[in-house]
């Protein structure tokens, strides 16, 4: 039973990674993306995840922040799908199933907040002054809350009883999402300061 679970987890992880990685031919990133990502929490991941969109981003801080949020949203959607599949595995212990369910709820909340942030950031392009500050404050609050949701996901996996493949697998998925969301928050903050 445990071997079946391990094989299923491996297959799910491969499918997830296939959906989130780019083609093997890595496009060269612009110096704008490279220099902007230097201030992010995970600069290499920032550059790697945003380089494919260099043509769209060009040198727009607004577009860079929106694209970073879109990457976070896509990774959150993939993680949500992964957790939905994982929750249906028959080999889960009751505590694992409960922790996966709680984590799924946190990721869903995070998804909602990032989605709202993308829309709110679009509104920032049309306003100035106090109105810009108000919209940016909403974006920063929601992205920060999304990051908290992602980190809270792992709380249910605390304690030695929860050690094992499920925890390791979920942690890898959540770390991936949390890292791109953290980068997106850094780029959003950078955009807000330099606007």
UniProtKB/TrEMBL annotation:
Pfam families: PMEI. It comes from the Eukaryota. Residues 1-25 form the signal peptide. GO terms for molecular function: pectinesterase inhibitor activity. InterPro entries: Invertase/methylesterase_inhib, Pectinesterase_inhib_dom, PME_Inhibitor. CDD domains: PMEI-like_3. Keywords: Signal. Residues 28-187 form the Pectinesterase inhibitor domain. This is Pectinesterase inhibitor domain-containing protein. It comes from Mikania micrantha (bitter vine).
């Amino acid at each position: 039973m445990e071997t079946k679970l391990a094989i299923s987890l491996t297959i799910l992880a491969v499918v997830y990674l296939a959906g989130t990685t780019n083609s093997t031919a890595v496009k060269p990133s612009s110096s704008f993306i490279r220099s902007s990502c230097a201030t992010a929490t995970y600069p290499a991941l920032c550059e790697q995840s945003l380089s494919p969109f260099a043509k769209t981003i060009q040198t727009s801080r607004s577009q860079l922040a929106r694209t970073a949020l879109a990457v976070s949203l896509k990774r959150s959607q993939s993680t949500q799908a992964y957790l939905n599949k994982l929750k249906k595995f028959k080999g889960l212990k009751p505590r694992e199933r409960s922790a996966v369910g709680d984590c799924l709820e946190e990721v869903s909340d995070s998804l909602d907040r990032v989605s709202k942030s993308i829309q709110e950031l679009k509104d920032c392009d049309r306003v100035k002054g106090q109105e810009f500050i108000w919209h940016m404050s909403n974006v920063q609050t929601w992205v920060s809350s999304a990051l908290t949701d992602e980190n809270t996901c792992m709380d249910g996996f605390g304690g030695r009883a929860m050690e094992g493949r499920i925890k390791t697998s979920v942690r890898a998925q959540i770390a991936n999402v949390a890292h791109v969301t953290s980068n997106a928050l850094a780029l959003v903050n950078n955009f807000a300061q330099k606007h």
